[in-house]
Design a protein that fits this description.
Length: 137
């Protein structure tokens, strides 16, 4: 039986990279979806994708699943556009929702069938406190 596979969105830096490293160290085959490549020493398959595009994300997920089901998903990709309510543009809100929420739903939907078939699955959704209690950046 092949090693379990973990998909990490936004896995090229920060918390996502730390999770990808931990998963690789645990013997899992890691797939990173990100715009930027992870460090060369990360034992992972990298799929370059701008997850702001639903179509590009669908293509990346199709590529990730080409080798079989992925039973572990870390929805880590995200962004903040800090602003007061008066200064928040609807386009900024839509972008934040697209990247932070829609991609998590899209990735989860893409992997669910394989998790059900395997009768095993783990999904971790990561959020940030970056917008709480801090000066606007």
């Amino acid at each position: 039986m092949s090693a379990a596979r973990t998909l990490v969105t936004g896995g090229s830096s920060g918390i996502g990279l730390a999770i990808a490293r931990r998963e690789a160290a645990a013997g899992r085959r890691v797939i990173v979806l990100d715009r930027e490549a992870p460090p060369a020493d990360l034992a992972a398959r990298f799929i370059s994708v701008d997850m702001m595009s639903a179509d590009a994300t669908a293509g990346a997920l199709e590529a990730a699943l080409a080798d079989g089901p992925v039973t572990r998903l870390v929805n880590n990709v995200g962004m903040v556009r800090p602003a007061t309510l008066d200064d928040t543009r609807l386009s900024d809100l839509e972008a934040v929702m697209r990247l932070n929420l829609h991609t998590a739903v899209q990735c989860t939907q893409a992997l669910l069938a394989g998790m059900r078939e395997a009768r095993f699955g783990r999904i971790v959704n990561i959020s940030s406190r970056a917008a709480y209690g801090k000066e606007l950046r």
